[in-house]
Amino acid sequence: MQPAKTGEPAPVTAIEVPLKLVQYIEPEIPQRLRARLRNNNEVTVAFTVNRDGSLSDVGIRATTNRALDDAVLDAVRQWRYGPLPEPREGTVQLVFNLDE
């Protein structure tokens, strides 16, 4: 990138607004499932944060236990982030330590 010449406006660079989770819903794991699970179950979820903070295109990217997937997706679909100037992709990893 070269500096702006005299009299020309400098190029504008977009500042990426950090994602701010404003509504978190805990996944509801049924008791019968909790009894069968061990520590360190991980589910990674990918999604798009829309301008209004709602989520779309929510899906499982990776999981160590498919039995958790539906509960995780149900919860994450209800999450809300702060508003953004443009939609953004996001990823989150949830770790379940159910022996505790």
CATH class: Alpha Beta
Strand fraction band? 25-35%
- Main β-sheet, spatial strand arrangement: 3-2-5
Sheet bearing the most strands, described? 3 strands, antiparallel
Q: CATH H level: which superfamily?
A: TonB
As a percent range, the share of helical residues equals: 10-25%
CATH topology: TolA/TonB C-terminal domain
Shape: elongated
| Tally of strands | 5
How do the helices and strands follow one another from N- to C-terminus? EHEEHEE
SS-derived structural category = mainly beta
What's the SSE blueprint?
Elements: E1 21-23, H1 31-34, E2 41-49, E3 55-63, H2 69-76, E4 80-81, E5 88-96
Antiparallel strand pairs: 1-4, 2-3, 2-5
What would you note in describing this structure?
The chain has 100 residues and is mostly beta strands. It has one domain: TolA/TonB C-terminal domain (2-Layer Sandwich). 12% of the residues lie in helices and 32% in strands. It has helices spanning 31-34, 69-76; strands at residues 21-23, 41-49, 55-63, 80-81, 88-96. The strands form 2 sheets. Strands 3-2-5 form a 3-stranded antiparallel beta sheet, covered by helices on one side. A two-stranded antiparallel sheet has the order 1-4. The longest helix has 8 residues, at 69-76.
Could you give a quick summary of the protein structure above?
With 100 residues, the chain is mainly beta. The chain contains 2 helices and 5 strands.
List keywords for this structure.
single chain; 100 residues; mainly beta; TolA/TonB C-terminal domain; 3-stranded antiparallel sheet; two-stranded antiparallel sheet; 2 helices; 12% helix; elongated
